[in-house]
């Protein structure tokens, strides 16, 4: 049941969704249904004080959820980190399309045509944008205030929808989607395997489930990243952004520019490949800064082996699971399977 407060161009700007069974009300703020877990209701209230001043009847639920357990603190830090990151670095570039297709390989643009899907952990909407351009209708789900950037980046396509919610408890009916993908998200959860298993329930029998997660990583850049994270995961975000600008300058000077020169000399091409994070030489400077922030800010990061991901697939009963290694300066995994009937 929807209660409308303000609409524009036949679209709800402010309103509420109320469950007819339990009576719980969930606000619609800036076009986006906000269906967060109770632990983040206080964060939602703090970030949207104007909305709750106009609609105090929805304030009771938003006063809950100020838990102080270790998991609740990590959840809030994750929420704040991605909220800051993707609203500060939510720019769209044409090369994101190739980036998306590289992530979801072996899926192709033709796969998406005419299907209903979900982008679980949509961030600022860069993957969502291309999935709908390929002909799918897709709901982008994200825990953080990145949903604001996702809405801005996809609002011109009526097949794109954005909802703020939790991967562990998505606000959807079971067996809703023809496909569901989660790119670069599960390895930041407190319990990634539980997140993966929860998503299977929302895919129709015979539908496809895809995930991209971190694999084992090593080398100088990873060692430096892990050492820095001991301090940076607790830093003020504006200060961390300044640090990331400095790190990006260093990468440009001592990795990206040398890579461009050395890679042109056949005898030195092997040395060029050893430079840290050299593949980012082709990205704009702001993307390099954003990548540094992504590595250093979010509190939880996990890395997986093939055997661990195989257990994920076995626990969900996925049919014909494919687990493929992906090398692009850092190792990662693509996981694809069919949801059983």
Task: Please provide a written account of the structure.
The chain has an eleven-stranded mixed β-sheet, sandwiched between helices. The longest helix has 26 residues, at 237-262. The chain folds into three domains: 2-67, no CATH class; 96-216 and 303-338, Vaccinia Virus protein VP39 (Rossmann fold, 3-Layer(aba) Sandwich), CATH 3.40.50; 219-297, no CATH class. The protein contains 14 helices and eleven strands. The protein has 341 residues and is α/β, with parallel strands linked by helices. Strand 8, helix 9 (192-200) and strand 9 form a beta-alpha-beta unit. The model has no long low-confidence stretch (mean pLDDT 90). The protein is globular, with a radius of gyration of 21 Å.
Percent of residues in beta strands?
15-25%
Helix content: 40-55%
What is the N-to-C succession of helices and strands? EEEEHHHHHHEHEHEEHEHHHHHEE
Integer tally of domains: 3
Structural features:
single chain; 341 residues; alpha/beta; Rossmann fold; 3 domains; 14 helices; 11 strands; 42% helix; 23% strand
Q: How do the strands and helices of this protein lay out in sequence?
A:
Blueprint: E1 2-8, E2 11-18, E3 25-29, E4 32-35, H1 41-47, H2 49-54, H3 59-62, H4 70-88, H5 96-104, H6 109-112, E5 116-120, H7 126-133, E6 137-142, H8 146-154, E7 160-165, E8 177-183, H9 192-200, E9 203-214, H10 219-232, H11 237-262, H12 269-273, H13 285-297, H14 306-316, E10 319-328, E11 330-338
Parallel strand pairs: 4-7, 5-6, 5-8, 6-7, 8-9
Antiparallel strand pairs: 1-2, 2-3, 3-4, 9-11, 10-11
